[in-house]
Amino acid sequence: MSELKAFAIGPDRYEVVVGYDEKSVVEWHKNEAGISDEDFRDYEIREFPMDKEVRLEGGITTTVCEWMKDVTEFPAIAFWKED
After folding, report:
1. Which residues pair with 64 in a beta bridge?
2. What confidence tens digit (pLDDT) does each residue in 23-54 have?
3. Cα 37 to Cα 41: distance, rounded to the nearest angstrom
4. Which of 8, 26, 56, 73 makes the best surface tag, with the fewest CB within 10 Å?
5. Closest C-alpha to 83, from 11, 1, 28, 31
6. CA distance 82 to 59
7. pLDDT score of 83
8. Residue 54 to residue 74: CA distance in whole angstroms
9. CA-based angle 47:2:51, to the nearest 5?
10. Could you tell me the CA-to-CA distances from 15 to 6, 75 in Å, in that order?
């Protein structure tokens, strides 16, 4: 998992997507979500720390690393968060 990176992608509510590089993660996310290039102009992309603790729905506190530890195929969406 040390080669993986996480990226927060979104215009307001963002999805944290894990993969090997920003370009492939963004293209995969656009295709999976059906986002047009025109709509994607409103999106922000920023690297998200793999070891940052976050609180998810249901009161779960975790990190991207911990949440994704059993995932074997990437890119993959870890979770979504409100800004």
Report:
1. none
2. 999 999 999 999 999 999 999 999 999 999 99
3. 7
4. 73
5. 11
6. 14
7. 65
8. 21
9. 55
10. 10, 12
